[in-house]
Design a protein that fits this description.
The protein is an alpha+beta fold. It has one helix and three strands. The chain has one helix at 28-41; strands spanning 9-15, 45-52, 55-61. It has a three-stranded antiparallel β-sheet with strand order 1-3-2, covered by helices on one side. The longest helix is centred in the middle third of the chain and has 14 residues, at 28-41. The radius of gyration is 14 Å and the shape is elongated. It starts with 8 loop residues before the first strand and ends with a strand. 8% of the residues are buried.
Amino acid sequence: MSHTYHCLAYHIVFATKGREPWLDEAVLPRVLRWVGDVVEKQGGECLAANGVADHVHILARLPP
């Protein structure tokens, strides 16, 4: 019997509109928590998430 194994890791980058610096110290933690929740609702695992004032990087493992 054959089996398949998937390990799909994605590097996702989101930027603010026009690269405006909207993600300050008060907003960024909330955005990162929200991103982690979205990944988990899709059945994935957020391995790392971080960002600066104008963009966010996410490393996530998602199902096929």
